[in-house]
Amino acid sequence: MSDIVQFESPYNYYKKCQSNTYDKSKIRPNDNRSKRSSFSNIDTAQYVAMRNVSDAIVNIADKQQTIVENCETPIDEFSIFNEWWFKNKTKDGVENTDAGKTVLAEKAKKISIDAYLEHNKLHEKPVVRMSLKGVDTVNQLDSFIGGSPGFLPKGFKIPKAKKGDFVFLAQINCSELTTLPDFPHTGILSLWASNDCSELEGRVFWFDKPTNGMSADEISSIYSNDIAKDELAYGLDSYHKITCNPGVEAPYLYDEYHWEYDGFVDIYNRLAKDNGIDPIEKLTGHQSFGSLPDDIRDIIYEYFREMNINAYGTKCGGYPFFTQSTPYELKTFTELLFQQDSEDGIQWGDYGVANFHMKKEDLKTHDFHNVFFTWDCC
User: Fold this and answer.
1) Could you tell me the CATH number of the domain that includes residue 316?
2) How far apart are CA 333 and CA 324, in angstroms?
3) What is the residue range of 316's domain?
4) Angle (deg, nearest 10), helices 261-274 and 98-123
5) Closest by alpha carbon to 214, among 150, 141, 144?
6) Could you give the number of structural domains in the chain?
7) Tens of pLDDT along 40-63?
8) pTM (2 decimals)?
């Protein structure tokens, strides 16, 4: 390997070959050449210009026959642009200095984050986050997960699932949901799911007037929490009392049905124009966060991660989280009724999450006959 000449980028390679300084057959791209992350140090809105410049350089190099034959790794357009960009002034007149690079990076970062925060404000939803604590017993009208139901009206019969048996998941006292506009604010929500994972089926019952309920003995005569033991999720055979914490939250970045690409691009382009930076190209069709240019996406994701912004946890309202892909059904079932995460000894498969979703009109009218239930894990 000692007779192989290393170089840092295709641009340097092109220049060296052009000057006939090295034997072309002994030149190959550096395996550790610049990766896409290097673009985050450049003015983030210059993507179109970068492509034009890199294409031009590659075309020239190709015409000069300076591209190594049978090269295993492709020409790195980001390395090309790094070399070209910092040999020239930016459109704002910043010279090729460390200080100039810092100005560009900080300017790009600020615009990306400001656009992200403004976008969030437009799409915030109220949420009631729930912290859990394992307990031995609960009161009849408490909010809790697992164990046996606290309240069931006299005469209640557990419905038959398509496959398997229904397992009691959670009871929510609706008086703790008053910050969620479309939710019921009185009564009890009782949530159930089939223990046969081949048929994802959930049921929600709303008892608007929780009086004249069954006694604990009557409930135990029709339901045993033994059915929940290791059948659907670990830990559902014991009680986990809920403490409610109201707040607001924005869409999860990778939630493709709630994170609005076009809305973000409009905000970013307005801020970019005010700061003399080129806009992001509009894309046709439905786009998600992952469709953004790599550099902008990386800046937002790093901020998102550092601020510990997430859609995890057990909650009512807000936005859902999925360990796998977002279900197609969320185009119709847009409202998150309840999310139960793996925590406090509860575990859905390999640290997964379960969700109950509803159509907006059904939630507003408190019609719980048609819910979409799903759960997934890593």
Assistant:
1) 2.30.320.10
2) 17
3) 125-251+310-376
4) 140
5) 150
6) 2
7) 333 333 444 444 444 544 554 444
8) 0.71
